[in-house]
């Protein structure tokens, strides 16, 4: 890691607090994730047992102030996401679903009673949340949402289906978006409420240390106070998605860095034709290209973080980071896999696991095409979604 970090010397432009949070996340990954991730991935195990440790480390709800949450800056949150995804994209996804999606929805759009009921426990890892927006018939077009919420006396009744909902089978609460007579609204739905059914989507070839689910809502009756009072319209849902997308811009660089670090160590040890693989010109050229791409992605993520802390990010800036850095990370992982030869298709090297996971990361929180159109709209002023 030293040789890679020395190229940019990013530590020189990080504050002591930023380095502390990054190092705390890195230490947790080194002790709790790396020794177990191959087994988790093979078994399709969702390591929810990590949540208390993640909460104790102050990594759940980073950037959210009050109600027992750790607070902190966008850069601090991003650095933590990079370290978590260096362990595995599934681990970073667990933290992202909990913090960037569910906790952000409650913190920004809930009332004080809802915040106090859920955020302190979620920040400790004592309760798990999920966000249910995507539907089976349309992943990239939430405007065509079919899930409904209707009033029945003083209650709400929800009916519909959601798909690819992270953590739904292990969650205590679901933030469900549904169409009402007044427009789209967010609701807090206890996962054990009558009429709620969550089913893991299996088998998966990616994100095997996480869980994504189908969710059915059949006549789910909720009290009036289950509605998040400020979660009106899709813009509220997109606010949560943009939090997660920002984290992905950092996280993808963690997966890429881990793949590069591992193969750099391998080629320094393995010999061919009487010399280390690292001593061949073609090997060094490939390593250099990967390091350049990684450095560019890390600088982009850091710039977005500083901008977010200073004045916030526009949607197209978030799309730029997500699109560019996931593409770059995939290319780095694929090249690292190839450079590792036969070992590259085993758990002896992490590159292929990271690349498989990144295919999911590339798809969720907006596909390449969605982000290209967001950027195209920003560049031309013409919306081409329809």
TrEMBL record:
Domain named Acyl-CoA dehydrogenase/oxidase C-terminal: residues: 232-378
Keyword Transferase attributed: no
Transmembrane in keyword set: no
EC number: 1.3.8.6
Cofactor(s) this protein requires: FAD
Pfam families linked: Acyl-CoA_dh_1 (PF00441), Acyl-CoA_dh_M (PF02770), Acyl-CoA_dh_N (PF02771)
PROSITE patterns in the cross-refs: ACYL_COA_DH_1
Record-annotated Acyl-CoA oxidase/dehydrogenase middle domain positions: 130-220
Family from the record: Belongs to the acyl-CoA dehydrogenase family.
Annotated protein name in UniProt: glutaryl-CoA dehydrogenase (ETF)
Species, as recorded: Agrococcus terreus
Lineage summary: Bacteria, Bacillati, Actinomycetota, Actinomycetes, Micrococcales
């Amino acid at each position: 890691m030293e040789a890679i970090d020395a190229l940019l010397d990013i530590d020189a432009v990080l504050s002591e607090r930023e380095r502390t949070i990054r190092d705390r996340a890195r230490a947790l990954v080194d002790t709790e994730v790396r020794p177990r991730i191959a087994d988790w991935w093979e078994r399709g195990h969702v390591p929810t047992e990590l949540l208390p440790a993640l909460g104790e480390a102050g990594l759940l709800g980073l950037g959210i102030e009050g109600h027992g949450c750790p607070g902190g800056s966008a850069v601090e949150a991003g650095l933590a996401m990079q370290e978590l995804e260096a362990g595995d994209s599934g681990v970073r996804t667990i933290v992202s679903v909990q913090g960037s999606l569910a906790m952000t929805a409650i913190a920004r759009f809930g009332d004080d009673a809802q915040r106090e009921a859920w955020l302190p426990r979620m920040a400790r890892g004592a309760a798990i949340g999920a966000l249910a927006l995507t539907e089976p018939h349309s992943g990239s077009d939430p405007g065509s949402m079919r899930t409904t919420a209707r009033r029945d006396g003083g209650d709400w009744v929800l009916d519909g289906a959601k798909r690819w909902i992270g953590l739904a089978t292990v969650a205590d609460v679901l933030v469900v978006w549904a169409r009402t007579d007044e427009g789209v609204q967010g609701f807090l739905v206890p996962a054990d409420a009558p009429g709620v059914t969550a089913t893991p989507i299996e088998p998966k070839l990616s994100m095997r240390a996480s869980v994504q689910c189908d969710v059915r809502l059949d006549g789910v009756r909720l009290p009036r106070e289950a509605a998040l009072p400020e979660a009106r319209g899709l813009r509220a849902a997109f606010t949560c998605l943009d939090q997660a997308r920002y984290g992905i811009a950092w996280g993808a660089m963690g997966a890429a860095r881990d793949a590069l670090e591992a193969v750099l160590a391998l080629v320094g040890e393995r010999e061919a034709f009487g010399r280390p693989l690292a001593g061949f010109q073609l090997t060094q050229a490939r390593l250099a290209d990967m390091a350049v791409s990684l450095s560019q992605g890390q600088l982009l993520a850091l710039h977005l973080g500083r901008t977010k802390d200073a004045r916030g990010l526009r949607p197209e800036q978030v799309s730029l980071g997500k699109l560019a850095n996931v593409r770059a990370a995939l290319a780095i992982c694929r090249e690292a896999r190839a450079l590792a030869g036969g070992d590259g298709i085993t758990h002896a090297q992490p590159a292929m696991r990271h690349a498989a996971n990144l295919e999911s990361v590339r798809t969720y929180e907006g596909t390449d095409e969605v982000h290209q159109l967001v950027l195209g709209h920003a560049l031309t002023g013409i919306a081409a979604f329809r």
